[in-house]
Structures are given as C-alpha cells and as structure tokens.
C-alpha cells in the first residue's frame, strides 16, 4: 500500500473540510470551474477567480488585482508544444510562436511590435512568448488598463490565436533568427539536459522533440507546413485565455467574449501522439555526461509509473509530507556542504514528473571540480541513512516551523502578489487537474493537517518515494576516466559501507540579541512630497523610511556602510567583492556558524550575508514587520562581526569551480565581463583572473571589513508595510546602539578619477570563449559619461532605446543575424566621466564582418539624421510606463530611500524624471549621438571560439 492510499484511509477528507468550515466535497467544485473540465474535488478554488468557457470551447480565467495599480497581465495558453510535432516538423511549434509577430490578417508584417511600443509596451518574440514540450504561452504586460490598451492587447492576442498568415517571404526571413536562437542556446547545459532525458526516459518524445528543433527543418520547412500545423492545434478548444489586473471583472469578461466568441477552427484537429513509455523494470544503471564547461555533480533517480490524480485534500496531505521530508533532507545536505573543506556545494531531495511518462524521486548533489566521486558517495549514504533510520523530531520541528511561517507569510502578503505571478499560476493549471487556491485557505488547511504531520508519517512518505524500482545513477563532470564503469565502482563501494544513525541537533541561543542601550534620535524630519521620513541617531547612524502598502506584509531594507572596493587597497578588490557576495553567508558570524544561524532563524524571514559595492559594504533583502527587529540585529552582526569562517573558502571554491567554465563558454558572458577594461584602465575595471579569485586572502578580507566597521558611516533604508516608529525602534536596538561613527561617507575623491583607454586607433579587442564553434560575438562599446548631469543621463537612456530599436530592425529582422541584439547603457555614480553604451550580437562567425559594419552604420545613422517622432515615441513610451509603474514598487523606492540623507541632492531626480524624459526632441538626441557615438570613443570587440 502506498503512503498516499494509507493517508487517504487514515484521514477523512470530509473531516478536514468540515474542520476548516468548507463545503462538503460534492459541493466544493461548482459553476464555471467545471467548464474547465477539472474533476470534482474537496479543494476550494480561489473565489477571486472567475472561470468560463465559450461556446467554441475556449476557456478563460479572470481575476481582479491591483499590484501594480492600473495595469494588467494577459496570457494565452495553447495546449500544444514540441512533443506534438511530426518528424518533419521538429522546431515548428516554436517557429509558429515567432510568426505570431510577423504578420496576420489585420496586422501587416512589422507593425505589431511598433503598435504596442507606442502604447508603452516592450514587446518582442524573445520576451513575450515561450514554447515548451507541451505548451505555447503568449504573454503581454499592459502598463495601463485604459480601453485603447486593453482592446489592442485582446485584438493582438486574437490575431496570434487564429489569424497568422505565414507569408512565405516572412517565413524565410525568420528562419535564420530561429537558427540564431538555437545557436545561442546550444550550451553544455542544454546538451546535459538532453542526455538526462535520454538516460531517464530513453526512447520517449522528450528525447527526440526538444522545442528548439533542428536546423534542417527550420531552414527548409515551407510556409504551408507551418500553416497546416497551426490550423491543427491553434483551435479554441486548445486555448485558455487569462486576464489578471486592475479592472472590472464583468467588463473584462464581456471584452473577452466579444473578441473570441466568433473564433471557429479551420480544418481537422490535430492529435497528441503518445510520448512513449518508460521501463520500470530496469536494473541499476549508470550514466555520465562529460564536458569541460559543465558543473560537476551526481544524482540518484528512481522511477515509478505516472499518475495525474485530481487535486484533493488527500493529495495535498501527501504532498505536504513529501515537502517536510524534502526540507529535512535538504537541511542535512546543507550541513555537509557548509563543513570546512566539504567536497559538495549543495544537494537535496526532490520528486518530479516527466508528464504522461513517469514520476521520479531524486537525490542530487553539486560538487567541487574533481569531487564527483565523493559527492556520489555522500548522496548514496545520506539517502540510505534516511531510509534506514528516518528523521528526528527536532528536524521535523524545524521543518514544520519553516512551512508554518512560509504559509502564514503567504497569507499575510497575499495582496503583494503581482498580476504576472497570479497570471502564471493560472497558466500552470490551465490543462491540469489542479486548482489555484487562496493563500489563507492553504494556511488554514495546513493547520488542520498538523495532527497528521507526524514523524512517523513523514518517514513513511520518504520511504514510500523510494520503494519501487532500482536506482538510476548519473554523474556530470569536466573530466572522468573510466566512464560508467567508474561511476558504478564508486556507487557500489559506497553502498557496501555501513551508515550510522544521525545525530540530533537543537538550536542555540542568539548571541546578538542584546546590543546594549538603544540609540537615541537627534533628528527626525519628513520629506512630505516623497513620503520619506529621515532620522539620525546620536551615534550618527542615519535611517530613512517610507511606509507603503504596495506589498502588504513585506518590508524591504538596505544597509550601507562606508568601505567597499575602495577600502580593499591591499588586495584585488573585484575578486574580494565576489568572494563576499558568494561566501559571506556560509562564513557565518563571529559567534555563530551559518548552520547555527539557520536553526536560530527558523521560521523568520531574515536576509544574511554582505556584499561589496564600489564605496560601501552592504546588507539588503526582504523581511517583515514582525521580523524587522531580528533582521536589523543580524544585519548589524554581519557588518560589525563578520565571521568568514574557514568553511567560506570551500563554498567559494566550489562556486567558482561551477561557474568559471560556464562563464568562459558563452561569448555574451565574456563580453559583459570584459567590457569595462576596454574603456578604462586600472584594478577596478578588469575582471579578475581565475588565479586572483583563487588567491583571495580570507583573513585579510575579514580584517578589512571589521576595520571599516569600527567607525564607518552607516545609512539605512526601510520601505514597505511597516509602522515607521517600529522601524526606528528596531534600528535603535541594533545599529543605533553602536559606538559613535563618522557622520559622512568617505569621498575617496582621488580614487574616482579614471584613466581611459586610448580609443583613437581602429583595433579590435580580441577575446575567446570555450563554447560552440558556430558562436561568435561582435560588439561595440562607446564611452559616454557619468551620471552627474541628470538630463544627460536620461538622454543616454533614450539614445540606447533608439539603438535597440534600430538593432532589432536590422540585425534581427533584416539580416537575421541574431536572435536578440544586446544593448546596454550605464552611467557611473562612482567614477568621474565614466559611462558606456554598447551594442553586441551573438552570431555565426561567417557574418562577423557584415555585423561589425552594420553596428558602425547604425551609430552613423543616429549621428547623421534625427529619428522620426514615431521612433522616439516607441523608444520613450515603454520607459515612461516603467517609470510610472515603478512609483508603486518598493524596490524602486528603496533605491531612492537608502541614501536620501547622504545624497539628498539626487531626490529631485525622482520629481523631475518624467518631465526631463518628455523634454527631448529627435534633434537633441541626434546631438547626443554626435557627441558620444563617434569612432574616437568606440571600442570594438570580437569574440571567437578558442582554438584547441
């Protein structure tokens, strides 16, 4: 008997429903949800969602939500993906998705994206749709819900649903764009993914129908084949339309019905072929994937037959037991990973599905380079330890605390869910036997389940996940001698060793709870028009608070302390900064290891670790009003008593092992890391070498942070759903209680001066990558200026927007050289006169000279002729809509608040940005291009595959 059946028998779903005050199971599923074809259940769907089905079979779901205010998210889910493709159609599901932006009955080719840009939407086939094995989803974020924007959005979604024309010339123009996308995505990670499917479910369509397709099909399939596939599967009965936003639900329902009710299918319906079958009688098997750029690790899988039961209380009970087992097992693996000189970076337990083929349980670990064998032994032995001895009550108590607090916060923060999050939740159940439920209902259900969430049941659930079939063992490595036989030998040797019963652990007392006499406030003022309260404590610590209701239940914070890269004179500042970012959390505090902190902070939403900016050390993250006291104490401890214990070295080394090869294998990553050094000279602009990263002196870095902490200026920003007086009290008990500090941040004036690279020649900066030979990158970087002049800064943002539009029109739509042009703009607030605007593309190496010439030409066009008013509108409107929406975003306000006292002169930028943005004319932007987009300020880059 499986644990699911046992639990279904041991706990009555009707009893649970009555305990929660819910309707009886036979009545819980009512009305329009039945029209979605979901079986009746004792789960109560979120009553805020309105479901419906049109007479033609198209389903829809509508939900009112005002985060962000005045905006909406639209999704169109098509129950069709790459697994439905025939042999000569491989990649055409994705091709159809691209063609949705290339001409329809009522929108000529090339007009759809500009139409939406004029309304303030940033739209394109690379960001507003995706195709997977079993679905195609179109996504549209409407920045406002006025009739024009909503009607246009629905109109264009309907065009994509039923009106694509597949003009042969347009299809031909799109072919190489799809090949370019395949080229960019053809990484070791994708090849590893293919190999994993081939090992876990060999012979199935998951192996032979990857959405990216085959170049041979993409380049040769005629338009008629695309059109035929479109008509077979883009049918109303296969489509679910979803609308979530700040609108009247009844009005939106009427608009959806008006737009889609007359849609009738064309031709015969397509059928989904069988995905194949898995062999559940396999003996233990082994597999290896070896690639010099892959992260190393090991995994143990166990397969069982696929099931798709209807969502029910009993199923959620079973899932919750598995979730608790996952938390406990993952916690054990984290302890091992955090040990000094640990061979593993992390690991854990999970349950997943290859839909319609198999379900599986998995134990996986990621390891340091060359340590896959130790990682595999750890995974095998920890799995066996858990199966043999089970978990402990203290471990379960920790997991229960974590789940309880997470569900409680989810209920308290329900109003913080964004339109896009809610829309995607509905997308995820569009064709499933599952329900979207209200967070408070889920929390109440968990409370009703608590008596059944026992150690006995959690142990039984974990064992049940491993009681069928034989393990399948897989290793990824950069180098591996002996192949599958070597993996088998390591696994069998480990399996022959006895495992001991686990040690039980309990939390220790928090050593940083008492910081002494709380600080007193000596200044307390209000910036009325921005709603920012500024406070100064007697020890000179500054605090800036903005109370908002944008994210109910959430509080964002940042703490900046004088220091950063400028304070790390005796070491490679970039390498040291990366070390802090990756390793400070696991390095713990002076009086607590990272593992101790995890136990102490169980159930709390508290951010840990520190980062290093140019001139500050910082702590930041998200917390709650209930946890703000603890959060401030933890942040103060990281900045003033950072531990950087020896285990930090192991974690940092493992991270670098994992990501270094990946970075070097992708030309776009190489370009990003090497951009600054092509413009400016000095230690702050060159990305560190592997040797410099490996040689970070942990003790010297710790000493530098602690020295900066002795009296360095501190400024704190707090934004969100919190009483300002409570925020002041929390800071008073921690940072306010520190010894007196400097009032002002160090200006580091001499370090802000930059020596620029001489760009007067016509040289090309040559770099190499270690990825695929058919990938090259060609790019140009123009040196602009710092952000000292706000108008100039805004103008450069607009100029980069114009460059992006031109790049899409030429490099993508005309030349089909690249899947997505890379356009970036940055103006420094740390270094004098430093800024960059860049354009690059990952391309076929054979196109390198042509693309370099086009990039040069685009810059010349912006210099030589002012753009049209329409092009400026298309570049500006998405930026303005983003600015408008950002005013109701705590993340935006935290960026304003965190230096509202030390950088008070910059507050006017918040007040003026829209007016400044609207003040630019095409002629003024042409003048900016004439200033900055000139050959003498340009560095050219070419990145090709490294020769063997």
Question: Can you tell me about this structure?
Answer:
With 948 residues, this protein is of the alpha+beta class. The protein contains 33 helices and 25 strands. The strands form 5 sheets. Strands 12-13-14-19-15-17-16 form a 7-stranded mixed sheet, sandwiched between helices. Strands 1-2-6-3-5-4 form a 6-stranded mixed sheet, sandwiched between helices. Strand 23 (822-827) and strand 24 (835-843) form a beta hairpin.
Quick overview of this protein structure:
The protein has 948 residues and is an alpha+beta fold. The strands form 5 sheets. A 7-stranded mixed beta sheet has the order 12-13-14-19-15-17-16, sandwiched between helices. Helix 28 (790-814) packs across helix 30.
């Amino acid at each position: 008997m499986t644990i699911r059946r046992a639990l279904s028998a041991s706990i009555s779903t009707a009893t649970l429903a009555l305990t929660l005050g819910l309707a009886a199971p036979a009545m819980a599923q009512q009305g329009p949800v039945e029209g979605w074809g979901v079986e009746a259940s004792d789960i109560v769907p979120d009553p805020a969602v309105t479901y419906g089905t049109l007479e033609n079979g198209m389903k829809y779901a509508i939900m009112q939500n005002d985060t962000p205010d005045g905006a909406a998210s639209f999704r169109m889910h098509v129950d069709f993906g790459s697994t439905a493709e025939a042999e000569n159609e491989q990649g055409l599901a994705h091709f159809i998705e691209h063609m949705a932006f290339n001409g329809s009955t009522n929108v000529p080719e090339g007009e759809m994206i500009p139409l939406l840009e004029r309304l303030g939407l940033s739209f394109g086939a690379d960001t507003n749709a995706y195709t997977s094995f079993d679905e195609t989803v179109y996504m549209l974020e409407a920045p406002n819900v006025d009739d024009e924007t909503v009607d246009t959005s629905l109109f264009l979604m309907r065009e994509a649903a039923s009106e694509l024309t597949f003009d042969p010339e347009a299809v031909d123009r799109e072919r190489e764009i799809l090949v370019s996308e395949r080229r960019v995505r053809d990484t070791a990670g994708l090849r590893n993914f293919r190999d994993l499917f081939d090992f876990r479910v060999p012979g199935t369509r998951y192996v032979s129908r990857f959405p990216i397709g085959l170049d041979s099909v993409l380049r040769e399939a005629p338009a008629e084949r695309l059109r035929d596939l479109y008509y077979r599967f883009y049918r109303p009965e296969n489509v679910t339309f979803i609308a979530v936003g700040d609108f009247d639900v009844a009005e939106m329902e009427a608009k959806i019905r008006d737009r889609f009710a007359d849609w009738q299918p064309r031709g015969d319906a397509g059928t989904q072929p069988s995905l194949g079958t898995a062999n559940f009688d396999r003996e233990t098997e082994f597999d290896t994937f070896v690639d010099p750029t892959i992260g190393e690790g090991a995994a143990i899988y166990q397969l069982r037959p696929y099931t798709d039961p209807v969502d029910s209380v009993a199923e959620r009970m079973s899932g919750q037991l598995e979730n608790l087992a996952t938390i406990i097992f993952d916690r054990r693996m984290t302890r091992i990973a955090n040990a000094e000189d640990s061979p593993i970076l992390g690991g854990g337990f999970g349950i997943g599905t290859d839909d319609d083929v198999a379900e599986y349980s998995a134990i996986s670990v990621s390891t340091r380079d060359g340590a896959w064998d130790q990682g595999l032994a750890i995974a095998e032995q920890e799995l066996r330890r858990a199966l043999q001895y089970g978990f402990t009550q203290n471990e379960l108590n920790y997991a229960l605390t974590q789940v309880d607090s997470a569900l409680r916060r989810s209920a308290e923060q329900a109003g913080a869910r964004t339109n896009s999050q809610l829309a995607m939740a509905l997308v995820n159940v569009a064709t499933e036997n599952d329900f979207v439920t209200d967070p408070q209902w889920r929390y109440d259900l968990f409370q009703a389940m608590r008596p059944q969430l026992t150690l006995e049941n959690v142990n039984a659930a974990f064992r049940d996940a491993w009681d069928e079939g034989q393990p399948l063992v897989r290793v990824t490595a950069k180098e591996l001698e002996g192949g599958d036989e070597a993996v088998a030998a390591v696994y069998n040797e480990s399996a022959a060793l006895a495992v001991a019963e686990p040690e039980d652990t309990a939390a220790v007392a928090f050593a940083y709870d008492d910081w002494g006499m709380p600080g007193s406030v000596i200044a307390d003022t209000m910036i009325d028009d921005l709603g920012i309260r500024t406070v100064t404590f007697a020890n000179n610590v500054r605090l800036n608070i903005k109370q908002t209701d944008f994210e109910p239940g959430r509080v964002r914070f940042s703490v900046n302390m004088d220091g950063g890269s400028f304070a790390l004179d005796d070491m490679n500042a970039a390498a040291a900064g990366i070390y802090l970012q990756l390793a400070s959390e696991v390095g713990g505090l002076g009086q607590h290891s990272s593992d101790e902190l995890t136990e102490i902070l169980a159930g709390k939403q508290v951010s840990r670790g520190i980062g290093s900016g140019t001139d500050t050390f910082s702590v930041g993250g998200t917390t709650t009003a209930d946890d703000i006291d603890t959060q401030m104490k933890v942040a103060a401890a990281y900045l003033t008593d950072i531990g950087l214990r020896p285990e930090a070295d192991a974690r940092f080394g493992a991270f670098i092992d994992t990501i270094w090869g990946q970075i070097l294998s992708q030309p776009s990553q190489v370009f990003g890391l090497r951009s600054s050094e092509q413009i400016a000279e000095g230690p702050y602009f060159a990305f560190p070498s592997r040797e410099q990263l490996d040689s970070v002196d942990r003790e010297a870095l710790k000493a530098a942070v602690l020295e900066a902490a002795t009296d360095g200026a501190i400024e704190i920003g707090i934004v969100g759903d919190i009483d300002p007086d409570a925020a002041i009290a929390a800071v008073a008990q921690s940072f306010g209680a520190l010894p007196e500090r400097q009032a002002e941040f160090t200006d580091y004036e001499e370090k802000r001066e930059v020596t620029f690279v001489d760009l007067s020649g016509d040289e090309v900066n040559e770099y190499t990558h270690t990825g695929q030979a058919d990938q090259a990158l060609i790019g140009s970087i123009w040196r602009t200026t710092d952000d000292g002049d706000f108008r100039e800064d805004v103008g450069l943002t607009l100029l980069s927007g114009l460059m992006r539009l031109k790049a899409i029109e030429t490099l993508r739509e005309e030349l089909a050289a690249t899947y997505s042009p890379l356009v970036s703009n940055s103006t420094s607030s740390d270094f004098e006169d430093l800024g960059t605007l860049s354009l690059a593309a990952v391309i076929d190496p054979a196109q390198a000279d042509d693309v370099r010439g086009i990039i040069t030409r685009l810059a010349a066009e912006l210099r030589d002729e002012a753009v049209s008013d329409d092009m400026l509108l298309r570049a500006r409107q998405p930026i303005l809509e983003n600015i408008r929406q950002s005013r109701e975003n705590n993340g935006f306000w935290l960026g304003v608040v965190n230096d509202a006292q030390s950088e008070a002169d910059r507050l006017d930028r918040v007040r003026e940005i829209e007016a400044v943005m609207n003040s630019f004319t095409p002629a003024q932007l042409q003048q900016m291009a004439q200033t900055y987009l000139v050959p003498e300020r340009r560095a050219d880059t070419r990145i090709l595959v490294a020769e063997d």
